[in-house]
Please model this.
Amino acid sequence: MIARKHLYSQNHEYPMAMGLRIILLPISWVIYIVLRFRHLLFDLKILSSQSFDGPVICVGNLSLGGTGKTPQIEYLIRLLRNNYSVAVLSRGYGRKTKGFLLAEPNMTYREIGDEPRQFLTKFNDVVVAVDEKRANGINTLLNLNPRPQIILLDDAFQHRRVNAGLNILLTDYHNLYPKDYLFPTGRLRDLNLAAKRAHAIVVTKTPKIFSPFTKKRLTEIIKPRLGQKLFFSYIKYGSLLPVATNQKIPIPRSVSTILMFCGIANPYPLEEHLRDKCNELIVKLFPDHHSFSEGDVESIIREYDSILGRNKIMVTTEKDVKRLIDSPYFSAFENLPLFYIPIEVRFHDESSKGFDQFIMDYVRKNTGNS
Model:
């Protein structure tokens, strides 16, 4: 039997008790009124949205995170980059800089954010930029020479100032937006009715074995509008890779204990995956986009040292790696078995053909490349 132990960091959010939800409900009502009024202003054209020439594809969600936006952007990059020049525009969450920045290889996550740093590291043929004002960022990219043929917007669904040509809305299989509530009662940061602006909805992190019954049930819950496409994806986990390029410690043939630590919005799918790879899984969680301090690193290593036995390793996420390697405390992991696990989005057979065709049809129509 596999043991599982959680070690929560001081700032980690515990599951919200029902009593606390009721107390916070009036705050959610106030947020609802504010958001409803804001959407009304855009719908009545009192507040304006800017449209752009050429394909602009937005990937976003209605929740506070954890729906798989980063691997979905990477999926689109892989789909498009062989035939088109692609640029990715992100806010650069957690960066210490402001305004528009064109990402360069020597920049750290503190300058451009962990997700843009990941895009830049994995795809050196793609332009990566950050700007908290998305319209300004798009206009700046369109003035580059050469000009990108396609712009992918990372986490911009809620930015009504931008009228993207194609809106892709993601929702987590384990936390579908129709069954969630507005923050702080739930995890929604926008209204359910905002989903009507999506051209496609993708249910992410579904089980790899996906039955027609499950598909039917999800479709009934989401109730896509006329003309909206509905697709279903899952996570494909890669092999464990050493975080340090010069790490010479191999993965044990038989792993007894895994200490998993990460600072992402939804770590539970990774937990499920790693639970089958060891006898004991110890989980140490930090807030999303967390910058690892010296105390954090010492705490992680102290927990690892306290684990009995020899066949033990540490595992983190690809996104956390970008923050770790830029940390001045990263050298503390030298000569320790620290690995990360890359992930990719995969669509179920029927969805895969449909999703790829859906994207390519839009791109060809809007680039004049038919």
Observations:
- Residues 8-14 have pLDDT under 50 and may be disordered.
